[in-house]
Amino acid sequence: MHRVTHPLVFILSAVFCLAVTGTSLAVDAPAAQAKGGSLILATTTSTQATGLLDVLLAKCSEATGISVKAVAVGTGRALELAKNGDADVVMVHARTLEDVFVAEGFGTNAYDLMYNDFLIVGPASDTALAKSAPSAAAAFGRIASGSTKFISRGDRSGTHERELSIWKELGIVPTGFWYVEAGQGMAETLKMADEMQAYVLTDRATWLSMRGKLHLSAIYEKPDELKNPYGIIAVNNAKVPGAKTDLAIVFIDWVIGPQGQDVIKNFKIDGEQLFHLAVGKRK
User: Fold this and answer.
1) For residue 163, what are the CA distances in angstroms to 166, 194, 202, 246?
2) pLDDT tens digit string along 108-161?
3) Domain for residue 2, yes or no?
4) Is residue 203 domain-resident?
5) Chain-centre distance of CA 179, in angstroms?
6) What CATH number corresponds to the domain at position 75?
7) Helix (H, G, I), strand (E, B), or coil: what is residue 71?
8) Nearest CA among 125, 128, 174, 117 for reference residue 151
9) Which residue from 183, 182, 166 is spatially nearest to 222, judged by alpha carbons?
10) Which of 15, 30, 83, 119 fits 221 for a cystine, CB–CB 3.0-4.6 Å?
């Protein structure tokens, strides 16, 4: 004899099991969907050259299952990649360009993330007397009026944008034998400055990671004057079809959360912290 059980019995049994185990189908399903996936991060050369990305992305993948491929270029180029649909999230350091990127609808969920500072490095002899200058602009002016070369990134990076803003403050359009545009990332530009014993504006993180290999000295450094903030922004799929905006937001939430912040604040070279936290959602 076969017993037929009323469907209501199955329903009540299922509810009972869920109550006992504390399981919620409505909560578990989205969590399972959020786990894993892949993203492309367009970022600056400084985050890669220092080694921060290697640690940060490995920890993120371990915690979230998200696989992140990083493309390290200058900030201007990183934002162009995002606009063209070749990145899902950006981590960059040129606030003016970032604000335009968001205002034009390409970026969403923008956060301040961290900062360090820029400094001028050059030959220890400091023939331009830039070290004693009262401001970064004055130091640039002394270099421009001297005979020692200055190496520019020349690549629309955040560092290049900051350099250009200083020349603009002086009313100088840098040209001539003393001004050399590298068109390279920060590490390669520092190597060129080393070979030519020239001055260069660099971010502190890349400088700290490379100074032991270079015959250059820190010439002008005033962290408050030359602050270098970094932001992290999801690419908006309403403007860039195909961008993985939802997954990018999951990634950003992890980076700005306790685990990501812990990686950033504890990332050091020779005992010196390379990036300082400044997390906050932008309006």
Assistant:
1) 5, 18, 9, 35
2) 999 999 999 999 999 999 999 999 999 999 999 999 998 899 999 999 999 999
3) no
4) yes
5) 27
6) 3.40.190.10
7) strand
8) 174
9) 166
10) 119
